[in-house]
Amino acid sequence: MIPIVLFLFTRKRHRGKGLWVIIIYLCYGIATELINSYYNEVFHVIPQFNFNLFDIVEYCLLTYFIYKLMRHKQFRIIILAFSVVFLSVSIFNITRPFFHSHYDSLTNVLESILLIIYAIFYFFEQIRKPDHIFFYAIPEFWVIVAILLYFSGTFFIDLYAQSQLENKAFELQYSLINTAFYILKILLLGVAMIMQSGDKNNNISRIDYSNLDEHLNLNR
Description:
The protein contains 10 helices and no strands. The radius of gyration is 20 Å and the shape is globular. It is mainly α. The N and C termini lie far apart (55 Å). α3 packs antiparallel against α4. The chain has one domain. Keywords: Membrane, Transmembrane, Transmembrane helix.
């Protein structure tokens, strides 16, 4: 809820920045948790189908957010190709009756790997040619940091989730680790919402530094 509230208070400064995608993601996550809690309280069952569907929607929204930040055509093509593979696997799995009542850890692990890779793509671009003099001072940076830390931190517990969820000790560890990284993700997304978007005075010029001598000669 914190990032959503902060976004509503600061939405004017973030127009056109794509943070609405993150807000949709957070709202969908809250809705999923409420539905699952209702089923658990009323019917005493955990609707694993909702969790599996959430993973697919989560991937689509976060990937779209990162894709819009990418400048290199090669990275965009890779993201699209990986997304086709991910959606093919995840949609195939979710249509199988087994995963209507069981958690699909394969989709979750694949999602984590791909989003970590996409986050690395973003940082690679920013290191080579940053969008901002202080690229850590823009909202997009903190969103990507949140994605990277959350999915890196929960990767290994998700890897064993499907086979170990009946284990009460593992279930407790899973809950603690996932909750800790979820809180960290929410805090980082909250930071993103209060960050001032870059303006024209702070943006780094798109000069190709490999042709710097040519630019200097033209200005003499």
